[in-house]
Every structure is written in C-alpha cells, then in structure tokens.
Amino acid sequence: MPNKRSTYHNRLDEALAYIARHMKERIQLGHLSEASGVSKRTLGYLFLRTYGITPMAFLKQERLRKARMLLQHADPSTATVTSIARECGFAHMGQFSLDYKRLFRESPSETLSQSQTGTGSPERL
Q1: Of all helices (H) and strands (E), which one includes residue 58?
Q2: Does residue 122 fall inside a structural domain?
Q3: Closest CA to 112 of 99, 97, 98
Q4: What is the domain-level CATH number for residue 109?
C-alpha cells in the first residue's frame, strides 16, 4: 500500500503533466485539481510545500520560463514577442511584459534582440 507522501507526490506529478500538456490553453485551478485527483485546497498545499508558491503562480512562472527559452532561441527577423507570448498561453501582453521583466530583469524584446547577436545574458533560471 503506497504511503500518503508518495500518493501526494504522484498527484503533484499529474498536475505538472497537465500544465505541460495544456500550457497554451487557459488553465484554471479546477482543471489542475481534476487532473491531479485532489481538492483545490490539497493541491495548493502540495505546491506551497514543494515549491513555495501557489499552483497558479507556478503556472505563470513556467509560462514565463518557456517564453524566455523561446525568445532566446528565436530568429528576431521572423519571431515576435507577441507570437511567443501567445504560444506560452499569455493573453495580456502588457501584463506579460511586466511579469517577464520582474522575473528576468529585462524586457521580452531585449531578450529577443539579444538572441540575434548571440550576446544574450546567461540564463538566470
């Protein structure tokens, strides 16, 4: 019989897998709760205990990290910040830019422009 800790770990893995599969879509806490098979409250506890943030803050952080990786490897002559942000599930470009700059200390357009010259700053992840 599995112990409670391994069961919760499996539930957390289910939520993480759901995030990875549905990153472009609008994800709500209820979706993560259903996918993981635990209540919203339990899921919140698992994320806070494991990552120190809520499930929705974790989702935003993962989307921002994915956007950064895509911006760093994009061709600035064809890619746009907007297209990459939308690919990562962001709908509000102003909020995306604010959150991105808060986390990475540069704007998304700065990251994209640096990918052209190969002088991008080392990843701060």
Answers
A1: helix 55-73
A2: no
A3: 97
A4: 1.10.10.60
Contact between 89 and 118 (Cβ < 8 Å): no
The Cα–Cα gap between 94 and 97 comes to: 5
Q: pTM (2 decimals)?
A: 0.84
Residues in the chain: 125
Number of helices (H), then strands (E), in the chain:
7, 0
Closest CA to 101 of 90, 91, 109: 109
Quick: pLDDT tens for 30-77: 999 999 999 999 999 999 999 999 999 999 999 999 999 999 999 999
